[in-house]
């Protein structure tokens, strides 16, 4: 239902798996990001290079990218059950076993990977208590629609999006809007952050009202109102935050959380999904290297491999959000999206392969104890 961007640090992995060409068919390469103030003043045009550090980024519709990855997993022999709920995660340290309960059936595995998102149940078992995410105070209206069907090409305020793939942003105090056309000007999506006080327990994702979204952009650049009004519906997606977990691994070491279950990201990082993929790759390397009889060691090596990098990427999302929401137009503050080398010129598979042995040995000396969280960090609630 919405756009997702996989950055070159994940693009590199997709390309290694031979999926680059297939993914590119459903993806769009925007060449520039035009960044405006909310009143429509062009602040900066950021050039978005085709390749960064030798790899493409992949930006497209979530469902279409997901379908390519889903088919790839099936080709590799993964047995996938859709539409079923894990009602319980379990670990028995005496018997050294772990598993899940699905539709009343107890399933046992060598290792259980809880990639169950921001509302993760696996996380409860890992932490030993319920750790609710906090509302960020913000939510995002998001939608996607056909350009011709919705008359984007007929309106002089929006018709430029029908001619080519464009990527625009508008930033104001504590809010921003993104709009982009994809597939050669055939489809379009927009995202609009807004203040939100609703209780996130009610629902993280619910239908939004276009009329409410229009109220937010009422006195903005008239192009924003014109773009928002073209949609017939939108989703109101609550943005939640969470302080870093002290650990991602269960006491017995056989259940591990990855992706948003371990570390939810603000969308302004444009890295949440990418870091989830990196997690999966690093965990696979750790499990393969350690072998079946050393699963608890493998999951703890994985945690050490990933923890600091993920935290640094989360912090970057926060600093980008602050840069946008608190920019001083008169001072000509920089509003470009960051492309740091440490983040994008990184190969999660090689890194895991190269550092596994060293971490494995150092943890062995400590009896594979859980790590001390040495970087105390608190994500503030100033929005997303
Ligand atoms: C508006 C917005 C825009 C974003 N844009 C980007 C972007 O451009 N680039 C980027 O990298 N990231 C982006 N992100 C972040 C990104 O969407 C997440 O970081 C990413 O989806 C996390 O992936 P995940 O697999 O860990 O969790 P999820 O995508 O949340 O997947 C978890 C899955 O587990 C399933 N599940 C949960 N509980 C159970 C259960 N008990 N039993 C069975 N299944 C269960 C859920 O149904 C879901 O399918 C954005 C986020 C938002 C809100």
UniProtKB/TrEMBL annotation:
All residue ranges annotated as the FAD-binding domain in the record: 10-289
InterPro entries (alphabetical): FAD-bd (IPR002938), FAD-dep_Monooxygenase_BioMet (IPR050493), FAD/NAD-bd_sf (IPR036188)
One Pfam family named in its UniProt record: FAD_binding_3
Gene Ontology molecular function terms on file: FAD binding; monooxygenase activity
Keywords: FAD, Flavoprotein, Monooxygenase, Oxidoreductase
Superkingdom of source: Eukaryota
Family statement drawn from the similarity comment of this UniProt entry: Belongs to the paxM FAD-dependent monooxygenase family.
Protein name: FAD/NAD(P)-binding domain-containing protein
Species in which this protein is naturally found: Schizopora paradoxa
